[in-house]
Amino acid sequence: MRAHQIMTRNAITVLPETPILEAAHKMLQNHVSGLPVLDASGKLVGVVSEGDFLRRSEIGTQQKRPRWLQYFLSPAHSANDFIHERGRKVEDVMTRDPIVANEDASLDEMVHLMEKNGIKRLPVLRDGKLVGIITRANLLQAVAGIAREIPDPTADDEHIRDRIIRTLEATDWRPTGLQVAVRNGVVHLHGLIINDDSARRAAIVAAENTAGVKEVHDHLCFVDTWSGFYMESPEDIKAAS
């Protein structure tokens, strides 16, 4: 799946000289948290987001640094803070040279860019021109769409069991003494979780993500090798009570 398949087309944009108040109204009216900024020629020059409105003099949230810290800041740094807190145009607060994605970028590439740069949206370009925008909401919609895909026709019980076992055996947190039983798409996981109970949820997730699985039952027992503490799965404890 590529950027052009899930992006929001005809993205709402603003100009660098657009008043901040107008940009804020556009974001509220259209229920978006960020806007690409285009110059008069249509070139992407920045992105303005809700985060850019957090430090503003109008609402008394401008930076308040102690005097000793101001001593170490350059005059240019202080001047830029002043512009960001009191500027009246989008160009005063926007993020310049934003991180972008090509329209053929894969989902993995886009998620990597978002995580690496701590951003929530990616303008999508074609030959240097804006053609859309990718947000976390677009990625969520893609996940939901994939979840509705046609099931694998080979997802019978034996195939399901083999796939779960192969998936878990390829990990370094796999349960010890793993046993997987499958009947009519219902999976039962048996084995020992050593020291870290997070492996339990990971094993369940691995099973749930296997094509054809309808339900997963957890019979994985927890063992702390340091103390010798042993506990049956929460599901089995609940069933026995």
Describe it.
This protein is an alpha+beta fold. Helix content is 38%, strand content 24%. A four-stranded mixed sheet has the order 1-7-6-5. Strands 8-9-10-11 form a four-stranded mixed sheet. A hairpin with a 2-residue loop joins β8 (176-183) and β9 (186-194). The longest helix has 13 residues, at 157-169. The two termini are 47 Å apart.
Weakly predicted, low-confidence segments: none
Question: Care to count the β-strands?
Answer: 11
Strand percent estimate: 15-25%
N-C termini distance? 47 Å
Give the secondary structure arrangement, pairings included.
Blueprint: H1 3-6, E1 8-9, H2 20-30, E2 34-38, E3 44-49, H3 67-72, H4 75-86, H5 90-93, E4 95-96, E5 101-102, H6 107-117, E6 121-126, E7 129-135, H7 136-147, H8 157-169, E8 176-183, E9 186-194, H9 198-208, E10 215-223, E11 230-231, H10 234-240
Parallel strand pairs: 5-6, 9-10
Antiparallel strand pairs: 1-7, 2-3, 3-4, 6-7, 8-9, 10-11
How would you briefly describe this protein structure?
The chain has ten helices and eleven strands. The protein has helices spanning 3-6, 20-30, 67-72, 75-86, 90-93, 107-117, 136-147, 157-169, 198-208, 234-240, and strands at 8-9, 34-38, 44-49, 95-96, 101-102, 121-126, 129-135, 176-183, 186-194, 215-223, 230-231. A hairpin with a 6-residue loop joins strand 10 and strand 11.
Q: What would the keywords be for this entry?
A:
241 residues, 24% strand, 11 strands, elongated, 4-stranded mixed beta sheet, alpha+beta, single chain, 10 helices
